[in-house]
Design brief:
seven-stranded mixed sheet; mainly beta; about 0% helix
Length: about 130
Amino acid sequence: QVQLVESGGGLVQAGGSLRLSCVASGRTFSWYAMGWFRQAPGKEREFVAAIGRNGDSTNYADSVKGRFTISRDNAKNTVYLQMNSLSPADTAVYYCATTLSPYLTSMDLTSVSQYRYWGQGTQVTLSS
């Protein structure tokens, strides 16, 4: 019932920017927190960023803090990840996800265990 569709990935030059989008359907979008995760070749999935239902309670991995910005447009059922100053270390498949339960401030949005539904992923590749 719940589907997440990601877009915006691609090949980008080091130092460049990309804006990822994730459109959700099948639930009341504004009730739930959203997160972005990524998985690079040979590595496990890791947390990137998360956002609460009202656009507050944002969280960022240390590796992307100051470069990436997560935002949401509840009217469009969409969450975004603006990625600036990209480097080869950012090359990965990026996934969006939404929580099992409606958002509570007590949720640790950096934890994979908080998320139930996942998008198909979008590839981000950095070139030199």
